[in-house]
Amino acid sequence: MPEFWINMGPQHPMTHGLWNMKVKVDGETITDAKPEIGYLHRGYEKIMEVREFQKNVVLTDRLCYVSSITWSHAYCLAVEKMMGIETPERGQWIRVISLELQRIASHLMWLASYGPDLGLLTGLLWCLRERELFLDLIQLMSGARMNQNYPRVGGVRNDLPENFEAMCKRSIEHFLEKLENEYPKIFHESKVFRMRTEGVGTLSAVDAINWGVTGPNLRACGVNVDLRRLDPYETYEEIDFEPQIWQDGGVGDSYARFVVRFNELRESCNIIRQALEKMPKTGPYRVKPPRRAEGEGYAKTEDSRGEALFYVIGDGDDRPYRVKIRSPVFCTMAATPILLRGNKLADVVSILGSVDVCVGEMDK
Amino acid sequence: MSAPLIPNLFAVCKVLVAAIIGIVQSIIYALSGPIPPLRGLGDWLGLDAVITVVTYLIVVTIVVLWVTVLNLFTVMWVERKLYSRLQDRYGIMISIWSLPFWPFNRVHRPTHKGLGYLQNLADGVKLIQKENITPRNADSAMFHISPVLIASSTLMVFAVLPWSSGFYVANLDLGILFILAAFSLAPLGILIAGYAANNKYTLVGGFRAAAMLLSYSIPMVLAVIALVVFTGTLDPVKIVQQQDRPLVAFGTTLPLPAWYVFGPQFLGFLIFSVAMIAEMERVPFDIPEAEAELVEGWTTEYSGMRFGIVFAFKWLRMLAACALISILYLGGWSGPVFTTLSVGGIPVPIVPEEIWFLLRIYFLAAFFVVLSWSVPRVRIDQILNIGWKRLIPYSLLAILVAAGFRVLG
Amino acid sequence: MAVDWELIAFFILSAFEIIGSVLVVINKRLVRAAFWLAMTLVTIGVIYLLFLSEFVFLIQILVYAGAVPVLMVFGIMLTRRKIMDEPGQEAPE
Amino acid sequence: MEYELLLSGALLCIGLYGVLARRNGIIVLMSIEIILNASILNFVAFSSYSGNPSGQIFALLGIAVAAAEAAVGLAVFLSIYQTHGSIELDKIRFLKW
Fold first, then answer.
1. Domain that holds residue D74
2. Are the CB atoms for A327 and A17 separated by under 8 Å?
C-alpha cells in the first residue's frame, strides 16, 4: 500500500476541539505529521486592545473553557504588575485556592478525555463524577461552573463563602480516597493501559526544551521546571509542595506524562489543604485598581498545560495598548511531528491525548 | 438425567404442522365438491415432503425469532445496564410507563423509572426511519452486499447451534465445525465493506478487522482440535452428553461435574475464550472500530438500519460465542436440577435445560461486558503479536497436552 | 416420472460455477473478482455436499470463504499505486 | 459422472484462460485456485462414485496445498511489488536472462 495522508479532524473524535492533525501513514506506521490549527482563531490580542482593563477578564476566561481561572489570573497578574498594585494577602490566598481547584478540574477533564481516547469509556464517567465535586466548589466560590470571571485586577471578585473551608476539606478527602483506591485500578495498574502508553511518543528533554514544550509535558521529560517553585507568584513560596517530575530516565513517553499529571492532582489537593490552613481568616481581598495606567506588565504563570505568559503594555489610556499571549499548547503543537513520527496510527490518540490539547487557548 | 422443555423442536413442529395441514386439507376437500381441481391441491398439501419443508421453514423462523427478538434484546439490555452500573449511573430507564398518555404521568415531566428493556427496540425503529446514505464514489453493489453477508453468516451459526438437547433446527455430526466455518465468513464481508465505502478510515478499519479475525480464527480452530482429541466427536449434543456426569480424577469422585474446563483442557479453554473475544470484536480487541482514531472503523459510512445490522451482529456473535464456550467447555445445558413433574402423563421439567444454558450464556456475557468496559483497547500490532506469538504456540501446546493425556489414558 | 433432484441441483450449481469463474477471469475490478472467487468456491463446496462429503464441504468453506479470498483482497489492496483510485484496475497499455 | 468431469474440465479451461490471458498477478493466483479446485472436485467425485473415502483425504490435502500456495504466491507478489512497483506480469523481467 502506498503512503497516504489521513486527516484526523476537524471533525473527529480524537481532536477535542476544532483542529486538524494530518498524519502520513505507511501501512500503520506514521512517517510524517502536520498539525493544522487556526479553526478557532478569534483574534484575542486585538480584541483586548479595545476593551477596558477590567472588562478583559471576561475575555481571558474564554481562552480555555476548561481552565478559565488560571488564564484570567495570569492576565490580572500582568495588569497588576503594570499598574504597580499589590493584591491583599487574603486575596492572594484565595487566588491560590481557586487556581488549584481549577487545575484539578482541568486535569480531571484531561483524564476524562484520555480514557475514551484509549477506549476506556469508564474512565470518562468516573473522572467527570469527581470533577463535579470541584465544579461545585468553584461554583460555591464564584457563582459559575464555567467561565467564572472570578479573578479581578487587584484581587478576586468576592470573598469565600462561610462554609467553604469545611466543604472543600470534605470534597478533597473524598477525592483523595478515590484517587488512591479506584483510579489506579483502571489506569496505571491495568496492564493494557501500560501497554498502550509505555514507550509511546517519547520526547527527549533536549527536544522538549528546544521546541518550547512547557509544564507537565516538560516535567515528564525529567526537567524540573515549575514556575510555582522557580518564579513564585502569589503566595506559592509559603507553601510546601513538590513539583511532580518523571524520575525514571530522561525520556518522557505517554505514560510519563500521564503519571506527572496524575500526581499533580494529589499535589494540588495538598496545596489547597495548606492554603486553607495558612490563610488569614479575615481581611481585605481586593484593592481598587486605577482606571488608567501606563507602562509594561509581564506575568508568567504555571497554567494547567504549561507556562502561560501575558505581556501587557498600557499607554495611559483605560485600555491596553498591546497584549501578547503565549499559550503553552500552541508551542507544544510544534513538537507533535517529533512526538508522532515512527509510532503506530493507533498511538496518535495515546500521544495527543497525553499532551492535553485545549483548542481555545491554542488558537487564541 | 437431562430434560429439555421441548423434547424435539422439529418433531413437535412437524406434528403441529401436520395437524394444521390436515384441517386445511379437510376444508379443501369439502370445497372440492363444487370446484373439482382443488382436490389435487389437497393431495399435494398432504405430501410428506411438503410438510417437511413447511416444518423446516417454521422451525427456522422460531429459532431466528428466539435469537434475535428475545436473546438479542436481552443481551443488549444486559450490556447497557451493566456498564452503566459500572460507570456509576443508571443507564436506560425510559420504559413504556414513561409515555405521556398514562394518567400518573404529567406531560412535561414523565416518570423515568422503568427498566428500559424496550429502549433497543426504539433505537431500531429510529434507525429504520433514517436515510440510507451511499457515498458518491462508493462501489455501490459491494457496499450494499457486505452487511447482508455479515449478518447472514452470523445467523447461519444459529442454524446448528443447539439451545438444549431438543431445541435446535438441525443437529449435524459436524456441528461445531459448521459453526466455526460460519464464524470465519465474516472477515471477507468486513474487508469488502471497508474497501467499498471508498474512505480511508473504513479501509484501514477493514484491513485491521480482517487481519485480526483471520489471525485469531487459527488459535480458535486449534483449540477446538485439542478438544476433539478428547471428545472424538464434533456433535455439540454429544459433547454436552459427555460432560453430564460427575468428575472422576485421581481414582476418586470429586464434587464437580466433568466439564472439560476442569482438567487438561483448561489451556484450550483460555485460548478459545481469548480468541472468541477477538472474534466478537469487544473492547480489548475492538481495534477494527477504534472510534478514537478511526471514526467508527469499517462501519463509518453505513447509516440507517444498515448500520443497525452491522452493529447488532456483534451482539449476535457474542451470543453465539458464549453459547459455544459453554457447550465446549462448561457443560452446555447440563445442570443439577432436572426434576420432572408428570402432568397428564407428559413429563414436564421444573428447571428445564434451556434455563441452565441461558444462565451460563448470560453469566459469560456479563463477564465479557465487565471485562470490555474496564480495560483500554490494545494496539493492532500488539493484538497480532498476542495472536501469532502467544496464542498459536499455546494452542499447539494444548493439542500436545490433550494428545498426551489421551495416550496415557 | 421420478425427477432426479440431485441432477437438477447439480446443473444449477454448475451453471453458477461456470458463470462465477468466468466472471473471475474477465473482471476488470479485482475486488469484485475476489468476491466472485469466493462465491464460486463455495458453490463447489455445495457440490461436495451433493456427493455426501460434508467434512470436505465445511473445510472448503472454512478455507475458501474465510481465508483465501481475504488473502486475495489483501494482496489487491496492498499492490495499488495510489490509495484512493479505483482499486485494482489494470493499468492501461 | 460425465457431468462432473465436464464441469471440472470447463473450470480448468477457464482457469487456464485466466492464467494465460490476464496480466495482473493476483488474478493469475485466483485462476490457479480455480484450476486446483477443478482437480479437487475430481477427487471428491471419484471417491464418491467408487465408494472409497481416500479421495476425500486427497481433497483435504489439496485444499491445504491450495491455501498455502495462495499465501506463498501472495508473499512473492508483494515482494515483487516492493522491488518493481508493479505486479503486471509482462513487465517483470528479472527472471529472464
1. 2-91
2. no
